[in-house]
Amino acid sequence: MMLKVKELTTVDTSLLQSCAALEAISICEPWSFGSFVSEARRKEGLVLVAIDEAENLFGLLTATCIPETTDLTNVAVFPEHRRKGIARMLVSELKNRVRDTSIFLEVRESNTPAIQFYKKHGFLQVGIRKRYYHYPEEDALLMKWEEIKNADTGD
Questions:
Q1: pLDDT at 150 over 60
Q2: Cβ distance 45 to 62 under 8 Å?
Q3: Cβ(21)–Cβ(67) under 8 Å?
Q4: Contact by Cβ (8 Å): 90, 61
Q5: What is the model's pLDDT at position 84?
Q6: Which of 3, 21, 74, 101 is the most exposed place for a label (fewest CB within 10 A)?
Q7: pLDDT-based confidence at 149, cuts 50/70/90?
Q8: At 22, which helix (H) or strand (E)?
Q9: 109, pLDDT greater than 70
């Protein structure tokens, strides 16, 4: 199975609907179809998906990209396709697109698999946001990634 990453725009209605369906089974406070359309429409918004040749959705990532900082707002993969490198592929694509910025994200304090995933991919915990989540109420860990540059060469 060969997957590719695609950036969605508002014309990708079917894939945006699939994103909302994936969110509904993956996240306690899921985005609606309209939220995905809105994110794809915004200049700072980014909706990346992992799809196969037939444009079947396997995973998604959303982010807000502004100069000097990026907020990774969602990563989700269909349960039957987890632990196959799909989230890694999406996060790597985001890192490649925003090389000169820091990437921030919030993750539920109880979401150990996600925390381990982010740490494995270079994110460090930099804070806690008290009562950030509501259903159920829970603190969020604030995590950050930034490209490490060689101090001697500036690379």
A1: no
A2: yes
A3: no
A4: yes
A5: 94
A6: 21
A7: low
A8: helix 13-26
A9: yes
Q: Which two tokens stand for residue 89?
A: 């592929």
Whole-angstrom distance, CA of residue 10 vs CA of residue 36? 9
β partners of residue 103 = 70, 145
Packing angle of the helix pair 13-26, 33-41 (nearest 10 deg) = 120
Question: Residue 29: which H helix or E strand, with range?
Answer: none
Mean pLDDT of the residues in the chain: 92
β-strands 124-134, 45-51: how paired? unpaired
Which of 124, 141, 145, 123 is CA-nearest to residue 132? 141
DSSP H or E segment with residue 86: helix 86-97
Q: Rounded to two decimals, what is the model's pTM?
A: 0.90
Please state, for a pLDDT cut of 70, what percent of the chain lies above it: 94
Residue 127 φ then ψ, to 5°: 175, 180
Looking up tokens 């994936």, which residue turns up? 22
DSSP code for 69: E
Among 38, 143, 25, 42, which Cα is nearest to 77's? Answer: 25
Report the distance separating Cα 128 and Cα 139, nearest Å.
7
